[in-house]
Amino acid sequence: MKLHTAAILLLFWLAIFTVHTVKGSVSSAPMQKFSCVTLSNKQRNVQNLVSYEKKQVPTDAIMFITAGGIKICVSANQKWVETAMKIIDGRRAAKRK
Q1: 59 exposed, middle or buried (CB, 10 Å; 0-12, 13-18, 19+)?
Q2: What is the gyration radius of the CA atoms in the chain, in angstroms?
Q3: CA gap 1, 71 in Å, rounded
Q4: Which positions carry the signal peptide feature in this UniProt record (predicted)?
């Protein structure tokens, strides 16, 4: 009877350990929810852009996020995109001070 109880407790603890380990590894992994499949050709007003993310899959692009939360992908090698990124970085630096 003692051996049977010990085996059940061992299985119980192994199950808890396994669930805890799997849950921790899945929740700690960063997940990309959005990728740039299509790119916009239209130049955007920098005043409406609040942040950006660099994307490399499936193509090199910049994903701008507007004040309204809209995500717009544009080609990374355009001059206005580089300027907009510098302006957004400047705003971020000013807020941190």
Answers
A1: middle
A2: 24
A3: 62
A4: 1-24
* Six-digit token string for 42: 């239209």
CB atoms within 10 A of CB 39: 16
What is this structure's pTM?
A: 0.62
Cα gap 29→19, rounded to integer Å: 16
Per-residue pLDDT of the chain (97 residues; tens, 9 = 90+): 676 676 666 555 555 545 444 444 444 445 456 788 889 989 999 999 999 999 987 888 999 999 999 999 999 989 999 999 999 999 988 888 6
